[in-house]
Amino acid sequence: MNTRSLVLPELLPLLEEIPTVDLSAESLPAFRAGLEQTAGQSFLQAEDYPVTLERLNIPGTENAPPIRLLTVRPR
Rounded to two decimals, what is the model's pTM? Predict the structure, then answer.
């Protein structure tokens, strides 16, 4: 499915800067871990906004998997 026509024309140059990612059931866990790591590092490196990061796993109900949660709190 190509949804490029739904993007505002003024945002298309920005869209060109974003790398494409081939997501699959096999590649998704590594992709999510990379995003989590990148987001965490971005928050920790922000000198003008000191924060504490906490990674939590909330148990799922019945057959549902646990939910990973990354909390960002001001110091």
Answer: 0.47
